[in-house]
Amino acid sequence: MMATVSRGAAFRAALASWWWLPVCVLWMLGYALGVWWLDRWSLGISPDAYFLWQRAFANAMPGYLALLVLVVLTRRLVVSALLVTALTGLLLLVSAKKMALLGTQLIYQDIYFIRGMDASTLDLLSRYLEKPWLVVGAAVGALLVMSLLAWLERPCLPCRGKARMFAGVTAGLLTVCLVMAVFPWRGGWYADAWIRPSPLDQVKGALHGGTIANVLYMYGLQRHQRFVPDLAALERARQQLASIPAAHQARLEQGAPDVVVVLSESFMDPKRLRGMSDLPDLTPGVRAALASGKGGALRVPTFGGGTVRSEFEVLTGMPVQAFPMAHYPYVDINRARLPGLASTLRRDGYRTVAVHGNSGAFWNRTMTYRAMGIERFVTRRDIPRQQMRLDGGWLSDHSMTDIVLQELDGNVGPQFVLAISIENHGPYTGATKVAHPEALNSIALPQQLTQEAAAELRTYLYHLRNADAEFMRLHQALLARGRPFVLLFFGDHLPALAMGGYAQLGFQDGGHPETQPVPWVLVTGNGVVFPRAPTERALHAWELPSLVLRAAGSPGDPYQAFIGRLTSWLDASGQATLSPDLQAGLVAAARARLEGTLRENDLR
Q1: What is the pLDDT of residue 163?
Q2: In this structure, are 343 and 214 located in the same domain?
Q3: HSE, side-chain direction, 13 A CA sphere, residue 575
Q4: Final residue of a domain: which of 224, 241, 265?
Q5: 35 and 181 in one domain?
Q6: How many helices and strands (H and E) does the chain possess?
Q7: β pairing state of 528-529 and 258-264
Q8: Percentages helix, strand, coil for the chain, rounded to the nearest 5?
Q9: Do residue 283 and residue 328 come from a single domain?
Q10: DSSP state of 304
Q11: Do residues 215 and 275 both lie within one domain?
Q12: Within a domain: 229
């Protein structure tokens, strides 16, 4: 009898010491289903859309690893499970917010915001929250509660036991495999067949495989990607272009000109919207330049955000289409050297400078600009307080123009200055104060807009008008300096309007917002004669660097000469897009150039 009681007591004691096992199994099952349901909700689709247990567990696997790491470190199962659940839920809530504002969910490249987190990053993110301090307070409160629970919960593993050692080794190996993007985090549940990615739209990968699994897939792809050029396609394109005359160069009367490139945040032609043509013109400076044949429409590879995609094409002359899955090139393409506009002009003896009124950590600009050959990068932290004049929450275009002119005046010899504006960065809703409220309130809009859509569009147009005014001021200041110059001004994409302005007005051509071009203008002066014949077709963003170099009288390099011939072919043919052979040749040339294997003879 005593032996029976002893065995029963031993069984109950063993059961009590292993209480965590059924709890862990139930949590893992509930966590996988909960993450899948929340993922579907964040994408705005039905919970059973593309549901398979493999996909649900693929999205849950990083959470399982996080739980294992936390349990090894803290020996607290319940608190670790609560923390992993809360952080995953927060991640997908943020993804839902991003989906509502920008039309895309959280992606791998967003991790860079965490790596480069600073005051500017926090400032930007807080603008998309209605009550940021409430969020901060909730986070602090949750941390305190978690700390209290961790103090109250009894450890589930002995401090120096074999179980903790085994779990630690397992967690370490899985973490190393995750960092290296090898099995089990690559292939299997994270293979193409499960994720079903699209080179044009990461939303499709999340739609089919889940947001978290899509992030892991993209990370593995980025870590192992290689861009192999098709040399046969390049040769076919070279032969097809052999009869095309070289693009004409500018005539220089006073030596090498200064080159100024202005990327104007979210700059578009408002008259493309229905109902805006009969209202006062908000972009008279750019419109006058376009009317005189000094620019045109520009096809950019992004909409509503993703400035670095357009920026990459204009600064390198290489289309992002040549690098599938490199959705944000400054993050996805890591090279010690990125040839393009800046490196070519620096080779020609130019001083190279970039100006941006935000953090250099955003989208890895600091490292990327260095690889491009930009010697000096003026960011928000470098701007003196007396020059840091805001308009609507961001550095004003007026202040940016002041800094550009200051950089030009402070040095002798030819200079290349790149200016990335930020005044007209969203969001366009909220109570942000503008410098001239009377100018904001005076902007007339079509009557059919709702109150919310009108307020959002009016805020955007206020900053758009400021950008146009600064283009005119910069142009006049360059003329007054007396030095020869080339000035390129262009928009990076249409703005993301969240209040329905696009749907309520529509576009003159009946097209969708994503298909609308943005303006580009190239003006020269003080001895630079570049009478480029106007063309009615919309240019691609990757055509602009070759155009700028020819306007500056620079010989460029074989790749840019190749782009010049492609541009001449498009102008002569009257076609909006390249033929399949020329498109394949362009992709091959861009890849070979990026990988450093492009030879001059390949393009002759």
Answers
A1: 85
A2: no
A3: 12
A4: 224
A5: yes
A6: 24, 12
A7: unpaired
A8: 55, 10, 35
A9: yes
A10: S
A11: no
A12: no
Last residue of one domain, picked from the residues 552, 573, 596: 552
- Whose tokens are 């007026």? That residue is 398
Which tokens is 16 given? 């009590």
Query: Which residue in this structure is represented by tokens 């090898």?
Result: 182
- What are the angstrom distances between the C-alpha of 211 and each of 62, 94, 96, 198? 12, 12, 11, 14
The whole domain housing 270 covers 250-552
DSSP letter at 579 equals: -
Which residues does the chain have with pLDDT short of 50? 1-2, 11-12, 14-15
d(CA 324, CA 590): 12
Reported for 574-578, long-range contacts at CB under 8 A and 24+ positions apart, including other chains, are: 574/537, 575/537, 576/537, 576/538
Residue appearing with tokens 């301090």: 133
pLDDT in tens, 335-347: 889 999 999 999 9
Tokens of 330: 């400054």
Residue 568 within a domain: no
Whether 207 and 279 share a structural domain: no
CA distance 438 to 18: 70
Handedness of CA 572, 575, 576, 579 (dihedral sign): negative
In a domain, 601, yes or no: no
Q: How far apart are CA 57 and CA 188, in angstroms?
A: 12
For residue 262, what are the β-bridge partners? 419, 489
With H, G, I as helix, E, B as strand and everything else as coil, classify residue 264.
Answer: strand
Among 482, 550, 531, 412, CA closest to 254? 482
> Rounded to whole angstroms, how far apart are CA atoms 129 and 72?
35
**Structure token pair of residue 277:** 């043509």
Is 595 within a domain? no
Tokens of 40: 């579907």
Whether 195 and 52 share a structural domain: yes
Q: Are residues 468 and 533 in the same domain?
A: yes
Same domain, 120 and 50: yes
Q: What is the pLDDT of residues 268-284, one digit of tens each?
A: 999 999 999 999 999 99
Residue that is written with structure tokens 């550095």 in the block: 395
Structure tokens at 198: 């699209």
pTM of the complete model: 0.77
Q: Which two tokens stand for residue 124?
A: 């930007």
| Nearest CA-CA partner of 354 in 391, 301, 308 | 308
* Total number of domains constituting the chain: 2
Q: What is the CATH number of the domain that holds 547?
A: 3.40.720.10
